[in-house]
Amino acid sequence: MADKQQDLSESLRRICKEGLAKALQKINGTKFLLVDKKAFCPLEFMGVSALFKELGVEGIARLTDDVPPASSQNFVFIIRPSVSCVRNVISVVRSSPSKTHFILYAPAELPFCKDMFKQAAVYGSLTVMNSDWNWIPLEENLISMEMDTFFRHTIVDNDWTPLYQLTSALQQLFDLNKRQSVGRILTKGELSRFVAERLMENLTNAGSTPPMRGTEAFNCPLLFDSMILIDRTCDLVSPCLTQLTYLGLIDEFLNIQTACVTTENAETGKPQRSYFRPNDPILSEIEDLSFNDVGKILHEKAVELSTTIDKGRSAADMVQLHSFVKKLNNVTMAQQSLSLHTHLSERIKKVVAERRFHEQLEVEQSLLLGQDNVGIGGLTGTSYSEAGQYSAEMEGGKRGFFGSGSVVEDYLEEKMASGSSPWKVLRLMCLYTQTVPNIKSSLYEAMKTAFLQTYGYHHVHTLAHAEQCGLLRHAEAKASANWNYKKVSEGIRLFVDEDPARPDPSEVAYVFACYAPLSVRLLQYAFQPRSGWIVPPAEGALASTPGRTHGYIIRYDSSSSSSSSSSSSPASPQSQTKDRIPLSGGIDIGAILEALPPPQEASALTSSSSSSSASASSSSSSSSAFGGFPSSSLPSDASSPSAAAPATALAPPPPAVAFTAPVNGAVTKNGVKIIGDTREAFIPFDSSMSSSPSPSSSSSSSSSSSLNTSATLIVFVGGVTYAEVAALRHWAKTSNPPRQILIATTGVMNGNRFMETLREDVENKLRFTTDQPVPDEFDEPKRGKK
Q1: I need a surface site. Which of 32, 473, 517, 714 has the fewest CB within 10 A?
Q2: Average pLDDT along the chain
């Protein structure tokens, strides 16, 4: 599997290089590149900069609002779509009217960019080009689009253009993967469902034997046969927590951008960029570990490397010397890697050893327990006697700024007063409102007021956006969204009570010391034996998690007529499956699970079972159906998919589209049959359902290949943290049997960058500030003058 993922990485790098080369070759003459700082690291990481000389590039500089001193007639802007980049481009275009300007988006233009250029009256001076720069292979099993503002554009701005870009990027993977092999798709959340529907629309339009659309030259073997898409809105707690894995802590304090971290050179003191390469011999062993275990591994590597070098120096004959020379390249790489990770570990160790870091961890753990008054001793270094005295003072009537005796609220006040980053304070506020129930409205408003008074009233937009996307939740919002953190945490065991300093390596909760990411727990349920996302009513905690679940089975039959029914209504007899059990209304899942046959016998179910389960659905309305969700999340009328509201409607309604996936039915078009939201679509990922028939299959046995021979593509729509990636990998390795996964995301983020995307660039129109002298005309009139 590792070889296949390496082939995928090489294919994606080649697509990126060729796409950029074709775009630059269309420009005659020499070129000068102005690259956005967020696009500079990906270009260097992908090795594209080595092609510039061959393409007539005269020079390259970072994009600012100043015109660079370049003799080239052609200015080429390579940018990620963002407001700051567009403003810089406008400034350069206005300041250099004699130049010819080209703009290359990575990956594509967003509507607001075009609007800003038109408002500035410079759109006619630009030649717009798009690239095939969709995926950046950060690691062997992790690829990212590196779109930091994806969540902001889709949820806050109600701009669904990034979803179409994600669809196009996934279609590229389907083409490289030979799309006929993908047989199952599970989605959680409305954004994920929208993307899945667009993919299935492309499949049905192309038919069972579609062209590869320019990817025939890429020899990329089968990578995945199933796919799960999950929205970021389904888990808004995890990004607010402090990551405790090696890469997670580096991202928290040194800010990793496209596998690049900036540190100071020990000799010169100047900043230098270091990249985490997939072929790093040490990184692959320590990246997902708890930071407490990293020092021991680095020490062992240092001893091993020193021993190897000593053996080479003491070589007694030419045979031993020749053997050492063969290893010299690997030894050099190991030395560089060890030096980098030792330096990074020392920097992180200094931060981790500080008292304020342990205070932050304990406050987070208090909130994860659903409490706001847990002691401030332990990791903080405060004695328990002092903590008891503090609690007695609170009970005696001494209260903090917010009018409450809560430790967490006073800690927030202290963080604001000490000048902490607004994004660190905001993520803690979001965690507080997400986990602690029944927060008084007066306290909630007091926190917001204190935040605005501390960091500026231009953050009123930031707080409004945080409320809009569900990060900041007051009591009314929790009730309307059916969000109950305590119920979810206890029902699916999110909080794992163990020693944070010595986490259990067999539990994924080590990535946050005591908290298993909700997103990873949901994915674990998708692979849970026997039930999958169909769980008994006793585990109805999943009903309180945001987002609907949907499941689809894709079957390819090249012998089918292209004139098959294309209606998405399950009422059509031609589009119905004969072996499915419809799940409309409220089914007694507990009773069904008792009589549920083994997965390999699923195809033997008869239509009589379908009618019996349909009658059972009318007698129960309170049990769960898909993935533990309430029956209200499923339409009682299968022909009306919008008849029911999801448990939490954070995503805006999607735009009108021509194709709608079937609900509790099937649709067949051009030899592609899609079965949607049936029991068969929700059973666990096992050997009997890991793949689907391919048109080239010679026998029916090829339709049931084991999941160990292929992988499941897991797509995080809206971003993912390094801690969640580490937890997912750890679970995949420790599963029995081990799971093969490929992780794709719209961007790798941490809590600070996540919160920062919610900000609004507000222009300060005040002419004068307090640190500037007041002009004479504002002085008091001098005596003697009229």
Answers
A1: 32
A2: 75
* Rounded Cα gap, residues 671 and 571, in angstroms: 20
Q: Which residues pair with 130 in a beta bridge?
A: 105
Contact call for residues 677 and 664 (beta carbons, < 8 A): yes
Q: Which two tokens stand for residue 649?
A: 């409607």
The model's confidence at residue 397, banded by pLDDT at 50, 70 and 90, is very low
Rounded Cα distance between 57 and 33, Å, is: 7
State how far the Cα of 208 lies from the Cα of 564, in Å rounded to an integer.
13
- E strand or H helix at 226, and its extent? strand 224-231
Instruction: Measure the CA–CA gap between 722 and 511, rounded to whole angstroms.
Output: 9
**Pair of tokens at residue 656:** 């009108």
C-alpha distances in Å from residue 539, one per residue of 189, 617, 635 = 19, 19, 21
What is d(CA 507, CA 499) in angstroms, rounded to the nearest whole number? 12
Residue 724 has pLDDT above 90, yes or no: yes
23 or 222, which is more confident?
A: 23
Count of CB atoms within 10 A of residue 290's CB?
21
Contacts of 748 (CB under 8 A, 6+ apart): 138, 142, 144, 146, 251, 256, 719, 720, 721, 722, 725
Which two tokens mark 398? 């001494």
Peptide bond into 737 cis (omega under 30): yes
> Which residues, including other chains, have CB under 8 Å from residue 566's CB and lie 6 or more apart?
204, 667, 668, 669
Is residue 207 over pLDDT 70?
no
Residue 141 near residue 742, CB atoms below 8 Å? yes
pLDDT for 126 equals 92
The DSSP line for 412-457 is HHHHHHTT--HHHHHHHHHHHHHHSS---HHHHHHHHHHHHHHH-G
Between CA 698 and CA 367 the distance in angstroms is 57
Instruction: Kindly report, residue by residue over 212-250, the tens digit of the pLDDT.
Output: 444 444 445 557 888 999 999 999 999 999 999 999 999
Per-residue b or e along 649-679, where b marks 16 or more CB atoms closer than 10 Å to that residue's CB: bbbbeeeeeebebbbbbbbbbbbbbbbbbbb
How many other β-carbons are positioned within 10 Å of the β-carbon of residue 577?
Answer: 20
Return the higher-pLDDT residue of 45 and 596.
45
Residue 505 pLDDT: 61
Residues near 705 by Cβ (< 8 Å), separated by ≥ 6?
A: 225, 687, 690, 691
- Sort 319 into a burial class: Cβ within 10 Å, 0-12 / 13-18 / 19+: exposed
| Most confident segment among 300-314, 384-398, 569-583 | 300-314
Antiparallel, parallel or unpaired: β 741-745 and 74-79: unpaired
Residues of the chain with pLDDT > 90, as a percent, come to 30
Identify how many contiguous H helices and E strands the chain contains and give both numbers. Answer: 25, 16
| Confidence band, pLDDT 50/70/90 cuts, at residue 466 | very high
Dihedral over alpha carbons 665, 627, 714, 207 (to 10 degrees): 0
For residue 763, the one-letter residue type is: E
- In sequence order, the 6+-apart residues with CB closer than 8 A to the CB of 62 are 34, 35, 36, 37, 40
The C-alpha atoms of residue 733 and residue 367 are separated, in whole angstroms, by: 30
DSSP three-state, residue 331 = helix
**Per-residue pLDDT tens digits for 44-92:** 888 887 788 788 888 888 888 788 877 888 999 998 888 888 999 999 9
Euclidean distance between CA atoms 186 and 502, whole angstroms: 35
Strand residue runs (E) in 463-584: 549-556
Cα distances (Å, whole numbers) of residue 466 to 272, 578, 628: 34, 47, 28
Average pLDDT (689-701) is: 39
Residue 66 in tokens: 């100043």
The residue among 8 and 153 whose pLDDT is bigger is 153
Distance CA 147, CA 690 (A): 30
